[in-house]
Design goal:
Strand content of chain A: under 5%
Largest sheet of chain B: 6 strands, mixed
Number of domains of chain A: 1
CATH architecture of the largest domain in chain B: 3-Layer(aba) Sandwich
Number of domains of chain B: 2
Distance between the termini of chain B: 41 Å
Number of helices of chain B: 8
Helix content of chain B: 10-25%
CATH topology of the largest domain in chain B: Rossmann fold
Largest sheet of chain A: none
Order of helices and strands of chain A: HHHHHHHHHHHHHH
CATH class of the largest domain in chain B: Alpha Beta
Oligomer: heterodimer
CATH topology of chain A: MetI-like fold
CATH superfamily of chain A: MetI-like
Structural class of chain A: mainly alpha
Radius of gyration of chain A: 23 Å
Helix content of chain A: over 70%
Number of helices of chain A: 14
Largest interface: A-B, 15 and 24 residues
Distance between the termini of chain A: 16 Å
Number of strands of chain B: 20
Strand content of chain B: 25-35%
Shape of chain A: globular
CATH superfamily of the largest domain in chain B: P-loop containing nucleotide triphosphate hydrolases
Chain lengths: ~280, ~375
Amino acid sequence: MSKARNNPLNSFAAHAALIAYTLIALFPVFVILINSFKTRKAIFRDPLALPEADTFTLIGYQTVLKQGDFFLYFQNSMIVTVVSLTLVLLFGAMAAFALAEYKFKGNMLMGLYLALGIMIPIRIGTVAILEMMVSSGLVNTLWALILVYTAQGLPLAVFILSEFMRQVSDDLKNAGRIDGLSEYTIFFRLVLPLVRPAMATVAVFNMIPIWNDLWFPLILAPAEETKTLTLGSQVFIGQFVTDWNAVLSALSMAILPVMILYVIFSRQLIRGITSGAVK
Amino acid sequence: MATLSIKSLGKVYPGGVTAVSDVNVDIADGEFIVLVGPSGCGKSTILRMIAGLEGITSGDLQIDDRRVNDLEPGERDIAMVFQNYALYPHMSVRGNMEYGLKNEGLPKAQIAERIAEAARTLRLEEFLDRKPANLSGGQRQRVAMGRAIVRDPKVFLFDEPLSNLDAKLRTQLRAELKALHKRLGATFVYVTHDQVEAMSLADRIIIMSNGKVEQIGTPMDLYLRPASRFVADFIGSPSMNVLDGTVSSDRRSLQLNGSHQIDFGTELPTAAGNQIAIGIRPEHLHQNTAGETRIELSVGFIEQLGADTVVHGTIAGSQSPLAVRLNGVQARDSGDSIALSCGRDQIHLFDGTTGQRLNWDNQ
């Protein structure tokens, strides 16, 4: 095993594959980033060129910051993502704990029911959701988005977390019970810290689709004061004229927070994905 | 410090499986009780019922005359040490020990005092700020004991605490545990499947099989007067030779399955023609003809342990297996024959069908 791993040829092949994948994955991001610093003409003349002295411009960023309430959009996206994630993780973990820890009639069925949402795309229900939001007066509020995203994220969260919670040793929870801890304390103070890698995994898997979503903001909350970043960027894309400088700048800026959150979660994420595989 | 009274305790699982039935025992204050038996005999279930981790189907459980059947584990004033330590992995040693106390709302000064004391007792002072992952198995088990000690409970429960340790460490911790019991003077209930552990630690042993109590008694009671064939077989290493046979017509000898006959020189306490079993411990057979009962062993293979030699073989002229423990280093070849004898007072009789002990005046 270790012999194979040390084989320079194998190691070269593995690294070549990884580097190739990294390049392919990073290429679009790189193109967006360099072009966001270029003049419109330069973007179209040579999209792959790096910004030079005569093609460098910050006009895109200036447009974005001036036109459209970019910070408000940003804030909306942030609120929706963070609150939805918090709710998904909190309720998902609670449901997962109940499914993993307590034996009750219909436990299996309940687990299946909660996981069913993984297989059914939530967008199929868009019309019904819209009707519901209209009649409950939630259209054009951030709550509409938060509720939808929470519902969208819960099935996978419950599914992944309950698997991980089953692995937490029973004796550990029992030790807590003998120490006189309440079930809530056991959940929050003993179990949650131990499934943190799984929580991070769920957080990242949920965060990116929520942050990037255009569909639900467009349908449920298109008002100026509730626009999210992705929706806000669309103002620069017109039917006839598209302000590419602004679009690329907005996208570049939208990448940042996701990247920061990812860096925070990534250590835990890798542990979550590889746990079991490594041990 | 407390007494523990178990009255006709039973456990039936929802599927209808009876795990434990009709267990009765009164445990005195400060007693070291060991529950022993093969896996699946219900010993851990009893411990978990005492702890409150498992519901009680029938019977009563009292700690200090207070019925605790329906109390939560945290309200029973007990502490438990688990086989796999069950330390909180994300907390330091100190954190592990103080967490329960903090949760009870004990004053900080008192917590610190108790932890210092427990750490001194268990020689854990230098490890207080380490995480469990950075401790050896023995140290982890001491932390688990520390976590139990600081709670100052009425009853300590141990669920095979030494099973995950290597043999040497197990012996060492066994001694520490015994010393700890002496120092605390607390009531200990200890579960193990290891009869050596049971014999060396217990004031009294409860030996179980198939959810039922086989015998309750001091280690020497169990060794010298096993109440059933099961107990005879379970206690002692190598285990007791148990030979099935039929009582002869004059009731003075036993016809073994096969052609061999063992003479007793006195009447057996059962009718002629009955099926019974006799039990002789390997260490009670001697290489001389001084004892009343003579047996000839045909050597199969030997185990040389240094201090003594265990010879396995069959009784000459039959297929009945027999083991004997001889003193010191002894060389024997397969096929050799050894003349052995055994005092009549060291022969146990068991009923052939029920396996219960038959008493006779063999002294």
